[in-house]
Design brief:
222 residues; binds zinc ion; alpha/beta; 23% helix; 5-stranded mixed β-sheet; 6-stranded mixed β-sheet; single chain
């Protein structure tokens, strides 16, 4: 089962999503991003007698990682992230937690897994394919779960596309050409999956983007 946590309360984070994959038989769970909602996620985990074994991070931006330190301290999961984004987790200036005034005390320990290449793992009964693609951030990584869900971070949204240098001032470390290629990759390869984006409405299909002439995907390079 998939449970979505959407952060609607904070105007700075534009409906950022975290996703909890739950194995209802074993009561194990895997989290994709945090949406700055560690407190609610921990409460849900305890209320439902779950064990959070792993967290997969799509990219290092504060809206996707803040409260990761709280989850680490409380639940001690393994934390997976694209290798090129790993160092930024520990840099509050770059990951933005300092800018928004959030204290972020992530401890570097043996529980971090740096994803260096396309790879597949089975955890808690879920098959997770990691595709480190880059673009929005150097280490932006897509996760395809059970050939059913594709977690794509800040790339393709149902009616928008993610921030990049062309549409957002102050975007650090974003490579727009790679970012556009990452959207092409999703459109070309993820048509059979339910798209779980980093922001806004979840569980849409690539076909809805293709058939919507107003979707900025069609004009992103103009
Ligand atoms: Zn982002
Ligand atoms: Zn974001």
């Amino acid at each position: 089962m998939l449970k979505t946590f959407t952060n609607k309360d904070n105007p700075m984070v534009f409906n950022v999503n975290a996703y909890l994959l739950i194995n209802e038989e074993s009561h194990q769970a895997i989290l994709i991003d945090t949406a700055m909602m560690g407190e609610a996620i921990i409460q849900f985990i305890y209320e439902n007698n779950l064990v959070l074994t792993d967290i997969f991070i799509t990219h290092f931006h504060f809206d996707h990682i803040a409260t990761l330190d709280m989850l680490q301290k409380e639940l001690h999961p393994k934390i997976h992230i694209g290798q090129k984004d790993l160092a930024f987790l520990f840099n509050p200036e770059t990951n933005g937690t300092a800018r928004i005034g959030v204290k972020f005390d992530l401890v570097q320990d043996d529980n971090f897994v740096a994803i260096t290449a396309e790879s597949e793992v089975t955890i808690d009964g879920f098959t997770i394919k990691a595709i480190p693609f880059g673009g929005h951030t150097p280490g932006t990584t897509f996760y395809v779960v059970n050939d059913e869900y594709a977690f794509v971070g800040d790339t393709l949204f149902k009616n928008k596309i993610g921030f990049h240098t062309k549409n957002r001032d102050g975007m650090m470390l974003c490579d727009d050409e790679r970012f556009f290629l990452s959207l092409d990759y999703i459109v070309d390869n993820f048509s059979n999956y339910l798209i779980c984006p980093g922001h806004h409405e979840e569980l849409f299909r690539v076909s809805e983007v293709i058939s919507n002439p107003d979707h900025p995907y069609h004009s992103m390079r103009d």
